[in-house]
Write a structure and sequence with these properties.
The protein is α/β, with parallel strands linked by helices and 253 residues long. It is built from nine helices and seven strands. The protein is globular.
C-alpha cells in the first residue's frame, strides 16, 4: 500500500540495485515517491527492481555511471525533461575492495584512483549536475551514503576510509555552501549485513564485528534505508550532519 509521506517527491537513487540502494528504493516507493534508478552495469537487475516497486509507471531506469560527468549531465537533462524538478538525491553508488591496511603495496594507484573517482568525485559530480533541479521550488535534499570508516579509519582498505572521510567533509562544506535551498546529510553505516559484505569479508571477521558491536549485530540494508527515509521526512531541520547507523560499533573498539 502506498501512503503519501513522499507523494509528489522525485528522487534519484544512484547505484539503485545494490542491497542498500534497493532497500531505499522500496521504502521511498512505498511512501509515494517517483524514482529515477541509476546503474552502471546491472541493467537487468535494476529494471527488475523497478518493475516490482509500487507505482511502477512513476519510475524510470537510467544508465549513468557516477564517474562519467557527461553521463551525469544527460541524467540531469532526462530528469528535467520528465519531471521538471528533483526533491531528493541519494548518493549511494560506491566501490571498494578488501586490502589489509598494513599491505601498502596492494593498495596501488589504480585502485586508489578508482575508489576516489567513484566514492568522492562521483558523489560530488552528481550534486554538481543536479544542483539546479534540486533548487527548484522549496529546495531539495542530498543524502550521501557514507561509512563509519570515514571517522574510525577502519573498513575495507585505507583509501576507502579516506574516501568516506572526504564524502563527510563534502557534506559539511556543501551544507554551508548550498543552504538554504539544499540540505546535505551523510548517513553513515558500519558493516552492513548482505551479499556484498559476505563476499568481501571472511566469516570470522564479520562475526568479530557483530561481537564488538553493543547491539550484537550488523546493520541491515533496511536499517540504512529507514535512516535515509527519516532524513527525508522527519529530520527536516537537519543539514551538515553525519548520522551513524552502526549499532554503537565505535564504542566496542
Amino acid at each position: 500500500m502506498i501512503d503519501s509521506l513522499l507523494s509528489g517527491k522525485v528522487a534519484v537513487i544512484t547505484g539503485a540495485s545494490g542491497g542498500i540502494g534497493s532497500a531505499i528504493c522500496r521504502i521511498f516507493a512505498a511512501h509515494g515517491a517517483q524514482l529515477v534508478l541509476t546503474y552502471r552495469e546491472s541493467a537487468a537487475k535494476t529494471e527488475a527492481l523497478a518493475a516490482e516497486l509500487p507505482g511502477r509507471s512513476l519510475h524510470r531506469v537510467i544508465h549513468c555511471s557516477v564517474d562519467d560527468s557527461e553521463a551525469q549531465t544527460r541524467l540531469a537533462e532526462a530528469v528535467a525533461d520528465h519531471y521538471g524538478k528533483l526533491d531528493i538525491l541519494v548518493n549511494n553508488a560506491g566501490m571498494t575492495r578488501r586490502v589489509p591496511h598494513h599491505d601498502l603495496d596492494s593498495l596501488d594507484d589504480a585502485l586508489i584512483d578508482q575508489i576516489f573517482r567513484t566514492n568522492f568525485r562521483g558523489a560530488f559530480a552528481s550534486v554538481r549536475a543536479l544542483r539546479t533541479l534540486l533548487e527548484v521550488g522549496d529546495g531539495g535534499l542530498v543524502v550521501n551514503i557514507s561509512s563509519i570508516a570515514g571517522t574510525t579509519g577502519m573498513g575495507s582498505n585505507v583509501a576507502y576510509a579516506a574516501s568516506k572521510a572526504a564524502m563527510d567533509s563534502m557534506t559539511r562544506s556543501l551544507a554551508r555552501a548550498l543552504a538554504p535551498k539544499i540540505r546535505m546529510v551523510s548517513v553513515s553505516p558500519g558493516y552492513v549485513e548482505g551479499e556484498y559484505t559476505a563476499r568481501m569479508n571472511p566469516p570470522e571477521l564479520l562475526q568479530a564485528q557483530r561481537d564488538a558491536t553493543p547491539l550484537k549485530r550488523m546493520a541491515s540494508n533496511e536499517d540504512v534505508a529507514r535512516a535515509v527515509f527519516a532524513v527525508a521526512t522527519y529530520l527536516t531541520f537537519t543539514t551538515g550532519a553525519i548520522i551513524p547507523v552502526d549499532g554503537g560499533r565505535p564504542l566496542g573498539m
